[in-house]
Amino acid sequence: MNTLHVNIALARYSDWAFTSAVVVLVLALLLLAFELAYAGSRRADTRERVLAGSVAADSATPGVVEDVARRPADERAGRAGLAVVYLGIGLLLACLVLRGLATMRVPWGNMYEFINLTCMCGLIAGAIVLRRPQFRPLWVFLLLPVLILLTVSGRWLYTNAAPVMPALQSYWLPIHVSVVSLGSGVFLVAGIASILFLLRTSRLGEPAAEGALARIVHRLPDAQTLDRIAYRTTIFAFPVFGFGVIFGAIWAEEAWGRYWGWDPKETVSFVAWVVYAAYLHARSTAGWRDRKAAWINVVGFVAMVFNLFFVNLVTVGLHSYAGVG
């Protein structure tokens, strides 16, 4: 690998920022999981405090506050966890910026960088969509796949900082890959929301359901809210990802002399896009809303993950150079 024109110090700082981001996001996951695990007891305590407050209002000493209520430990942990998530987003951004400065190119020229960018886009989408306090439990389920992706990226897909290979030296690289990463990251939020919607509308979401998993499902937002999150994020990501595919076709015509050649990456990307189109159609069709549409969205999510890993790393095609090297 040619490292003649690479700033080794900045590349090292980029690696440190990546490692720090993973550690910070793990800490955020633990804090938010703590809040999710004990949110039920908090509601019970809140009801008790409300009753106690009604009694205290009859106190014979007006103007005297006997006890100032503090935020419960689980709520404080959740608020801290969300702040740590924002720190993790900043560290991922620093990782990408430092790698770009180290190589003097856009920092998404291989799978390691592409996954980092996609995860950052997914986290930023979560920060926008899940900004309300009642949505904090959803962060646990968003951070889990993000951390799995980052672990795979850092452990098996890591590539030393280096100039981009000749096949990718085009002004279409920053356009095509960034748009696809943005769409993929937002689709990640949509897929998680649909999976949780299916759980919320299953037997586990029934009021009489018992067990640890049922208690966790009961602490999620209501089914309509989850469905709305999935739909709105897909509405945004669908045209973005579609433009990414179109930009890739234009780049393919410049690089290979044809717009479309049914390369494995092209084919699966198109299939995933069609699945999401079917979801949006089903979501607005009577008899297909709710669970049927959610299952279609989950199929699209699985197609995106399949396209991300299997197609890039296992199959042989014109996109094979975008693997780990």
TrEMBL record:
BP GO annotations: cytochrome complex assembly
Transmembrane segments: 16-39, 80-102, 114-131, 138-158, 178-199, 229-252, 264-282, 294-322
Keywords: Cytochrome c-type biogenesis, Membrane, Transmembrane, Transmembrane helix
The UniProt record lists the keyword Transmembrane: yes
Domain of life: Bacteria
Signal peptide: none
Membrane-topology annotation of the record: Multi-pass membrane protein
Location in the cell: Membrane
Domain Cytochrome c assembly protein: 108-319
An example Gene Ontology CC term for this record: plasma membrane
GO molecular function: heme binding
NCBIfam families linked to this entry: cytochr_II_ccsB
The protein's name: C-type cytochrome biogenesis protein CcsB
Source organism: Mycobacterium montefiorense
